[in-house]
Amino acid sequence: MAEFMSLSAAVEHHLRDGQTVAMEGFTHLIPYAAGHEVIRQVKRDLTIIRMTPDILYDQLIGMGLVRKMVFSWGGNPGVGSLHRMRDAVENGFPQRLELEEHSHAAMANAYEAGASTLPFAVFRGYKGVDLPRVNPNIRSVTCPYSGEVLATVPAIRPDVAIIHALRADRQGNVLLEGIVGVQKEAVLAARSSIVTIEEIVDDFGPRSANAVILPSWTVGAIVHVPGGAYPSYAHGYYKRANAFYIGWDAIARERESFAAWMKANVLDGSPDSFASLAFGSRKSA
Amino acid sequence: MTYSATEIMTIVASRFLTNSDICFVGIGAPSAACNLARLTHAPGITLIYESGTLGTRPDVLPLSIGDGELCDTALTTVSVPEMFRYWLQGGRITLGFLGGAQIDRFGNLNTTVVGDYGNPKVRLPGGGGAPEIASSCGEVFIIMAMNPRAFMAKLPFITSMGHGAGKGSREALGLSTKGPTRLITDLCLFEPDPETSELIVTAIHPGVTREMIQAQCGWPVRYADQVGLTPAPTDSELAVLRDLQARTKQAHAA
Questions:
Q1: B68 close contact with A: CB closer than 8 A
Q2: A149 pairs with which residues across the strands?
């Protein structure tokens, strides 16, 4: 049953060193504020899972908190490389990073299998490509009806899922809309979850009958963090800070500028600063 | 009007898109070409981005595949598992439009690593949606600027499959989709040789010579018997593209 908590209490209570955590968000609704709290609490030896690791995972890797990453596309979308991830993979700095690499189709199916408590996902993919050669978790099964050989990957079952959503009601039900990504699947696949939200409402009111709702009994902790997805965005609240994503390239390129930025903005920061960043000079989406 | 190499590449690519295409759009150059087509001769084209947006009509080019602009202007937005299961794997997308870091003469693409996978010289972002876009879409267009480090005789890693080792490779894996049918570059147009599936030059852009093409290509370039001359970009194509790029630049700086 969902429990309203402070961000520091939620991360302290739900995530431990050495665990597997999925902080999902497909460009939209990336849980930056929660990820920064993980960094402040120095949770170590993590296995991090995400289809599209971007700046947030670059930050976790650069701060030396990550042992292994499971992913399908690791870059700064439309801008270029994740320099901290590259430094870890290419130079072992600040520590070696183990990779388990998939395609998007594989990971999307693996989350769905996890949410369904199936042991693995089956799909038509990985034809004629090299990833199965370097990832022993990519295997195959023969269809018992048609004889077709299909690709398989293990279900994703994180210890903890962390997502950012739009609203929660007083009972702790959670709503998200827009580009909903794989967040519903990630929360249902995980053993526990932390959901940060833009707004607490008495009642969701008139809404599409098909809005994505996570009932309170499927959610662990709920934390009210307005602006908590910045520089990602929250549909109907604020737009993606594309200028920040473009500017991150220069910050993350050198170890020193990265460390200085993290000290000033994350280690010495707090969840309260997200609202002014997200809503400050930016017009509402 | 004079034009840049990137502009003619984008414009030539856009000309191949039609109102009847259901197109899975990669970010960057593919997205520019697809939206240019939509704003010029193919207003009815259906554009799909892997974030789940079906039938999107953005006013500015998205920086990422999941910008809010895509969702705000889409016919509908579905979850990412649904996108890959029902729409892509379901065979409902006629055309995949990809870019890449490196390509070989059979249209196989590498966006994963330069050097050895376990100890890479350069770690690239990886495949994302591309491996299954390349196998599940009815056909594939690829857009890439030429240079000898990108157009390689042998790829260090195959992220997504083109024509494999040549004609028959796709069929041998049970694929019934066409694979890459056009490679649009800043210098020329490549299409697969019907006999071998090797990508051969079928049209050359204005002012470009065969020597210039070979200088930017890591394999010995072959040419079709009849090589066409690409019509130069028109003033109106350039105006629409530049207007789109200017709007985009302004929006991304905000």
A1: yes
A2: A142
A72, A79, A125: residue with CB nearest B135: A125
Q: Identify the band that residue A283 occupies on the pLDDT scale cut at 50, 70 and 90.
A: very low
* DSSP state at residue B87: I
- A3-102+157-279 CATH choice from 3.20.20.70, 3.40.1080.10, 3.30.70.1270, 3.40.630.40: 3.40.1080.10
Tell me the domain boundaries of chain A: 3-102+157-279
pLDDT, tens digit (0-9, with 9 covering 90-100), for B58-86: 999 998 888 899 999 999 999 999 999 99
The confidence score (pLDDT) of residue B140 equals 98
Rounded Cα distance between B231 and B12, Å, is 9
Across the range A187-210, mean pLDDT stands at: 95
Q: Cβ of B176 under 8 Å from any chain A Cβ? A: no
Q: What is the pLDDT of residue A32?
A: 98
pLDDT at A165 over 80: yes
Q: What is the pLDDT of residue A208?
A: 86
Share of chain B above pLDDT 90, in %: 93
Phi, psi of B200 (to 5 degrees): -125, 155
What are the two backbone dihedrals, phi and then psi, of residue B183, each rounded to the nearest 5 degrees? -120, 110
CA angle A262, A265, A268 (to 5 degrees): 95
Confidence of residue B93 (pLDDT cuts 50, 70, 90): very high
* Dist CA B97 CA B139 (whole Å): 9
Residue A80 DSSP SS3: strand
Distance CA B30, CA B223 (A): 25
Write out chain A residues lying below 8 Å of B27, CB-based.
77-78
Model pLDDT for residues B6-25, shown as the tens digit of each residue = 999 999 999 999 999 999 99
Structural domains of chain B, ranges and CATH numbers in brackets = 5-253 (3.40.1080.10)
Helix axes A242-253, B235-253, angle to 10 degrees: 70
- Residues in CB range of A280: below 8 A, 6 or more apart: none
Residues of B marked as catalytic:
50
**Which three-class secondary structure string do you get for A203-218?**
CCCCCCCCCEEECHHH
A104 with B127: Cβ contact below 8 A: yes
Task: Answer yes or no: are the C-beta atoms of B147 and B6 closer than 8 Å.
Answer: no
Query: Scanning every residue of chain A, which has its alpha carbon at the shortest distance from the alpha carbon of B175?
Result: A127
Instruction: Return the residue matching tokens 């390239």.
Output: A249
